Structure formats: structure tokens, C-alpha cells
Amino acid sequence: MSDEIRKRELRGLQEDVSRATLPDEGRVVESAPAKEPKTPGEWIRLNLFSGPFNSILTIVAAVFLVFLVFQAFGFVFLNSDWRVIQVRMKGYMVGSFPIDEVWRVWSSLYLVTALAGFSAGDSVRLPRGRSLVGGVIAAVVATVIVVYTTQTGLVRLLAAAIPALFLASNVVGRLVPPKTMRRIRTWGWVLIFPAIMIVIRGFDGVAPNEWEGLFFNLIAAAVGIFASFPIGIALAIGRRSELPAIRGFSVVVIEVFRGVPLVAWLIFSRFIVDLLLPPQLDLPDIIKAFVVMTMFSAAYIAEIVRGGIQGVHSGQYEAARALGLPTTRMMALIVLPQALRATIPALIGHFISLFKDTALFSAIAVTELLDAAMRLGLEFQGQDAQTLVFAALIFWTIAFSMSRWSQRLELRLGVGER
Amino acid sequence: MADDIGSTAASDVSPAGSAASNGHMIVAEDVKKWFGNFQALNGISTTVRKGEVVVIVGPSGSGKSTFIRTINRLERHDEGRIVVDGIELTDDIRNISQIRSEVGMVFQSFNLFPHLSVMQNITLGPRNVRHWNRKKAEEGAMQLLERVGIPEQAEKYPAALSGGQQQRVAIARALAMQPKIMLFDEPTSALDPEMIKEVLDVMKELAQSGMTMIVVTHEIGFAKEVADRVLFFDDGVLVEEATPETFFSNPQHDRTKLFLSQIL
To answer: Which of A122, A179, A196, B234 has the fewest Cβ atoms within 10 Å of its own Cβ atom?
Structure first.
């Protein structure tokens, strides 16, 4: 063992010497790589079979991986009949949403796609090779899935319009002057939700009790994210207030909503909201559930943001105060931008779990995506594995996209980081 | 001169307004401050005239930083009176914000806003406190950046600048509010030796332009060259004040002599 270490140290030393004596190399590489392997064979020997124990680990892992791939391949291509998904695609997506009104959902989807493409107009590009390979793989997989899971040419055409629209709006986003682009983007994201609500509900539209399938999960997650974010920030600031009444109120709200499982809150929501809001409002049950979900999420956001605020150096407050900035402007211009930037990973993580938690609405008899899948499993006995796996795939795809988006956001906002 | 000022401070019981009209920018009377059981300031009385450059020296923990931080209310004084430009510092929030907008401060650790560009750092105060429009604020900021010698850095973020450049931006940021008084809290202590001069040069130019300045520093050369008066703090007490010539060549108190023997 100690021999091993000594050898490694020696190797490092030799590398240092060789690097130091190579003036034509120009820049010294920052992270010293362990001896560059020359051939693939050498790489395998160094990294996978460097000792008896590692060799055994490699072989065991390889056997297990092959077994997994084999099983997955068998499940996907040999033992399963995916026609159930093809037949019930609408059930997954929108449940029993009236078929004559489905154009409203498509229009909403296109609105979001256009805005997302436009917004990505100034995004930081990932290293070219990676983004290209990843994009091609994603496109192929998506095409295969769409072709496999849809029945009519019309639906395939409508689905194909999504990437086309994304690219087109992306080009527009790149061509518009950056300042205008940013303004449109901000207002776009502020107005997108009301706009979708008008598209869905306006002109003799579809009421919330008919929102089902993935469409419901997305709407619920959007409501939760957009509504709980400002409330959560307010609670975070309130918890740090010097006024005992405000601080106490914030603490009580945060601790009460965090202390009970979300699924319990959803079940209670029918009674609880009537206690909090005037019963004359006579909100539909689903809106009441949205209200408690929003508060539940806000409590978590409050704690995340509070952590970020505490991470802002005291010198920042002093510099802002020394300039004479009033407290509200100090919070809005100096403290919150830094606190939120520092907490992006945690916030997006929370949003991802909130999106997945929308499956809990099945507990209050909403036919959301998971519930729709389970119903299909009952309907097509013996094929429930396929129906559930497909629902999981949808959840995973969206959660993964959010996580990737978070990474891009971090890159973009990374400017000027200490 | 030192005696003259000392007697003014001691006998100055006239109302705040007349003190200001006498050319007194800062009047401190018997200022006391505790942190828990620790007494940081034990009855500081002094006066700073308009255009005067006062350097405060003393061992660490002597209360010199705490004292200048009470002048713009980053620390609240527990007893005594502080009058800045004719306005007494009380718990009245309006007085505090008025004084803060007239007193610029430069910190040891720069405290630039890392998420804002140099230009945005400098224009933040004028735009949000003085309510200037963007054009006016940015023109003023460019003039200040030229004055501190780094106009080409306007669009960069603080993290891209050297320590000396950051501190010069911090000085420009404080000056952008067009303050009547500038406070410097060990402005060169966090800098690498080769960057100290560029910051001191900016401060010297500022002193020559007639700015009223209080500088907490260990830079004896700067004190000798620029200061009108040197204050020596120890254990929260203003032990000695004198012109730099007298202070460094002929210190009166034993504690001052001991301190000077340690740093010179």
C-alpha cells in the first residue's frame, strides 16, 4: 500500500519536473491529470484492472450491467405490447378532457414552446460536441417514442410542430436586440400563465374539474411554482424581520405547513381553506387544493431562501446602508439577487420535487398522470407494467429537463460570481 | 493647533446648527459604546472641521473602527452626542438616511456588490437614493472612474478586478453620492503591497481637493504626508491628538510612545 503511494508520489514528482522543464508548453495545466493513457488498452488496464480487487469489481459490475441491459431490452422490445399506450395516449396527456376542446391544450403547449425557444435565445451554449451528441440522441429517442405512441398522422404532425416552433422562436430570440429580447422574455413569463388560463377557460372553455392527465400535473406544478415563489420569499424575509409579530407569523406559517405531509394537506384542503378564506368565495375543491399546495411549497421555499439570505456577507448590508439605501431597496437590489442566485440549485430541486408531488392529487380523486396510468393498468389486465413505466418515463423526462435547465441558468447567471 | 482644536471640542456646547456654521462637519461629544459587557468606546470627544483630513491610529481593538462606524450609524452609539453636518444622529430614521447619503464610506474588504458591474455598483446609490436618471448617473460614474484611473473597467464585474482596482471602484462608488465627508476604514489593509500605492494616491488626490476625511489606517507615510491631525485611540479612549509632525516626533503619552515604538 505504502509502496503504491510512494510510486504515485514519485510519478507526480516526475510529472512536475517534466512540466517545469518544458518551456514550449506555454500554460501549465491547472488540474494535473494522472498519467495520460496512450492507447484504449492501456486506459482499460489503468482504470478498470489496476489490481485484483478492482478487476473483480469491474467484472461483477460489467456482468450486472449486461444483465440489466438484457432485461430492459427484453421488457421494451420483446415481452411488452405498447399498443395500450398508443390507444390511450390521450388519456395520459389530458384524461377525459373533451376531445373537441383539445386544441386549447395544443395552443397552450405551443405558447410555452415559443416562449421557451425565444428565451433560450441568449442561453450559454454547452460545449459543442456534448450538446450536439445529446441533442441528436434526444431527437432520435423522442421521434421513436412519438411514432410508437401516437396513432394518427395529425397528432404526429402536431407533435413535430413543437421542435420546429422551438427552433424558429429560438432564431427570433437570437435576432432581436438583447435588450428588447430580455424585456419580452420577462413579460412573456409573467403573462404566460394568465394567457394559458384564457386559452383553456375563456370562450366557453374547460373548467378545472375536467383537467386530467399530464396536463393537470403541469398546470398544478406551474400554479405551485409561480404562486409559492413570491410568498416563500416574503415568508423568508418575514422570518428575519425585527418585528416580533411579523417574525412570529412567518415562523408559524412555515412550521405548520412543513410539519404535515402534502398528501394530508390535500385531503384536508376542502375544510381547511374554508377556515382561512371567507367561505362565501365558494372555491372549487381543486382550487382549494392548489391553495394548500402553494402554501406548502412556499414554506419550503422560505427556508431555502432564508438560507441564501443568511449566506450574504454582512459587508454587503453595510455597503448598502452606507450608501443610504432604504431597507426595501437594499433587500430587492443587493441581498435577494445574491441570495436567490446562491440557492438556484436548491430551488430548482424543490420545484422538481413539487412537480413530482402533483401525483399526490390522485389521493383526492383527480385523474392526474399517475392515476390515469393506474386506471389503464386495471383496464388492460396484465399490461400494468407498461402503463406505469410510461408514466414514470414522462415524469422523468420533465424532471430531467428541469434539471438541465437549472444547469444552464446557473451558467448564465454565473457572471460576476466571486 | 492641536490644543486649539482640543479646547474647541471641550467647550463646544453650542447648538448643532451653529457648530456646523462654524465649519465643523463632525462633532462628537463623550461618545460611548458597548458590545455586551465590552466597552468599545469610552467617552470620545472630538471635532472635525470642513476640509480637514484626520487620521486615526491605534492598536487593534482600540475602538477606532467602531468610532468611524458610529458616524454613519453602522454602529449605534449608546451614550453621548454625534452631530454630522448640523444633523444630530438619533434613532430618527430620516436623520440617519440623510446623514448616510452625505457620508461616504470605504471598507477594508471593499464590499463591492459582486452581482453588479462596476458601472452599476457606482450608479446604484445616485439612482436609488438621489433619484438621478440613468444618463446623469452614468456620466457622473464615468467621470469618477477616470478620476480613480480605471475608466476602461466600467463594464466588468468586481471579481475580474485586482484588489487595488476594486478598492478604487469602492472609492468611486462612495464619491458618486457626492458626499461631504468620506470615511475610510483601513482601506489598504486587505491589499497586496504593490497595490497599496495606487489606492493611497487616489486618497491623496481626494484630500488635496478639499474633501473632509477620516481615515483609519496603519499607513504612517500617508498620515505624515496628508493628515492635518492624527488621533491615537487605545482601549476605547482618545489618548492623544496632534499634528502629524508633533505626533510622530514628540508623542506625549506613554501609550502613544509604546505604540509608535512597535510600528515604526
So the answer is: A179
Surface of A (295-324) touching B: CB under 8 A: 313, 315-316, 318-324
The verdict on a CB contact (< 8 Å) between B74 and A325 is no
Q: For residue B105, what are the CA distances in angstroms to A141, B122, B214, B215?
A: 59, 13, 10, 10
Bridging pattern class, strands B229-234 and B79-84? unpaired
What does the pLDDT look like over B68-99, one tens digit per residue?
999 989 999 999 999 999 889 888 888 888 89
Question: Is B261 in contact with B20 (CB distance < 8 Å)?
Answer: no
C-alpha to C-alpha distance for B216 and B131, rounded to whole angstroms: 31
The closest alpha carbon to B70, from B107, B101, B32, B98, belongs to B32
- A329 closest CB neighbour out of B101, B128, B157: B128
Model confidence over A274-299: pLDDT tens digits?
Answer: 777 777 777 788 888 898 999 999 99
Answer whether A416 sits within 8 Å of B157, measured CB to CB.
yes
Under 8 Å between Cβ of A387 and A84:
yes
Q: Are strands B38-49 and B181-185 parallel, antiparallel or unpaired?
A: unpaired
Nearest-CA distance A316 → chain B (Å) = 6
Task: Tell me how crowded residue A21 is: count the other CB atoms within 10 A of its CB.
Answer: 8
A254 close to A235: Cβ distance less than 8 angstroms:
yes
Task: Test B103 with A323 for CB contact under 8 angstroms.
Answer: no
Contact of A329 with chain B, judged by CB distance below 8 Å, is answered with yes
Query: Is A332 an 8 Å CB contact of chain B?
Result: no
SS3 content of chain A, % helix, strand, coil (to 5): 80, 0, 20
Q: What ranges in A21-100 are assigned the alpha helix state H?
A: 40-48, 52-73, 83-87, 89-94
Residue from the list A313, A321, A329 with its beta carbon closest to the beta carbon of B100: A321
What ipTM was assigned to the predicted interfaces of this complex? 0.86
With H, G, I as helix, E, B as strand and everything else as coil, classify residue A213.
helix
Q: What is the DSSP string of A118-186?
A: HHGGGPPPPPHHHHHHHHHHHHHHHHHHHHHH--SHHHHHHHHHHHHHHHHHHHHHHHS-HHHHHHHHH
